[in-house]
Amino acid sequence: MLLFVVLGLCLLIILVSKKVNVIVAAPLVIIFVALGNGMSPYELVTGPYVAGAAGFIESFIFIFILGAIFGKVMEQSGGAYSIGNALVAMLGTKRAATAIFLASLLLGVGGIAGFVIIFTLYPLGLSVFDQANLPRRLLIPSIGAGIIMAISAPATPQIQNLMPMDYLGTTSTAGFWPGIFSVTVSSVIIALYLEHVAARARRREEVFDHPEGYVPRAGGGFPPVYLACIPLISIVVLLSVFQLDPLVSLGSGVLLAFIVLFSWLPKPLEVLNEGTKTAMMPLLFASSSVGFGVALQAVPAFLTFIEALADSTLNPLVLAGITTNVAAGLVGSASGGVVLTLTTVAPELSASADPALLHRVITLAAAGLDTLPHNNGYLTMLAFSGLTFAQTYKEYFVTTVVAPVFALALLLFLFSVGVFV
């Protein structure tokens, strides 16, 4: 029954918000959903759930480890602080949240995976927010919003933008101008909102809260900003220009970071050990969330519901937007929402809609309800930062759900009155 799928999703959100570890919560919810649908809990947990979680670990374990090591190099060498100084100098301390959002967006458009952006920007963000004296909780929506905008942008090498190409016969720039319009509208809303909440935090006299193990940086002794930027730029160039494998690109960036920043690393071996240790818990959190989504896709009632949406008499582009958003929300994954839409209803919808516009609507819709509390990227950021649901989710919801959903709704309205069509 679909009711038990929806109730299971609500239960998962409640458990996560109450600080129940998702590694524990996800299997419990799968058991609940299985019992409500007359399925074997044992088979659903040990089958699709374990396969999904294990597959994610197999695909991303070294991405997580290298990303965490890269972040530690940037943090402990002072490279992140140097870049943070430059960003603050350009935009001013009053624009710290917007600076991190734009940095996240640019890295994502350049092809860097969301998890790598988290590991890379978080230590940099600590330096920026330390100087701006802003509460650390605003780092989560600032980084997350940039990632969400990047995955749906036209021409980006993010996987969500590449998957529809094989199914619809389109290119990565499909629906270019509608995509630019929607991402621009979302980004303006996000930037204005971040500035609003930052100003409110200052009025309330909230200050930067030092995380455990963080040493405030002050004075000199830091690498020049041009040296600190070299490893970061190298990853972007290797990924987006030379189109090397993400693992090769990130590994090269880590090696280059050690070479150019070695003189500023007090304990290089400790960076390796600490980075590896830091990566493990976020990896397990994310893999558990992915396993939950895979298990959900094995429930017949869920797939029946997604397919039933295709029978509606709504405009096919509107249907694609609704279907992808619902699917992404239920599985807690933008890429999961794209896959479900492409494999269930996209073939029928493409017969009555421009494939290029359909491509763009699907990618834009994937960056909406996917960031409900069980989203693996959000859980990774919480695990990596040590922050909580209560501290971060309100602003995260506005920047990663409300803004992109509003922009997509506006775009669909323009489609309905003949603009962009």
> Strand content of the residues, in percent?
under 5%
- Give start-end ranges of low-pLDDT stretches: none
Could you tell me the radius of gyration in angstroms?
21 Å
In terms of quaternary structure, what is this? Answer: single chain
Q: What overall form do the CA principal axes indicate?
A: globular
Order of helices and strands: HHHHHHHHHHHHHHHHHHH
Tally of separate helices: 19
Helicity level: over 70%
Class of secondary structure makeup: mainly alpha
User: Roughly what is the average pLDDT, rounded to an integer?
Assistant: 83
Question: How many β-strands, per DSSP?
Answer: 0
Distance between the termini: 38 Å
Note the main sheet: none
| Tally of structural domains | 1
General description of the model:
The protein is mainly α. The protein has one domain. About 75% of the residues lie in helices and about 0% in strands. It is built from 19 helices and no strands. The model has no long low-confidence stretch (mean pLDDT about 85).
List strands and helices in order, with pairings:
Layout: H1 2-17, H2 22-36, H3 41-76, H4 79-91, H5 96-109, H6 114-132, H7 139-152, H8 159-168, H9 176-203, H10 225-240, H11 246-261, H12 268-297, H13 300-309, H14 316-331, H15 334-344, H16 346-350, H17 355-366, H18 376-385, H19 389-416
Helix pairs in contact: 1-2, 2-3, 2-12, 3-6, 3-11, 3-12, 4-6, 4-10, 5-6, 5-7, 6-7, 6-18, 7-9, 7-19, 8-15, 8-17, 9-17, 9-19, 10-11, 12-18, 14-15, 14-17, 15-17
Transmembrane segments: 49-70, 99-126, 138-155, 175-194, 225-242, 248-266, 278-306, 326-345, 396-420
GO cellular component, one term: plasma membrane
GO molecular function, one term: gluconate transmembrane transporter activity
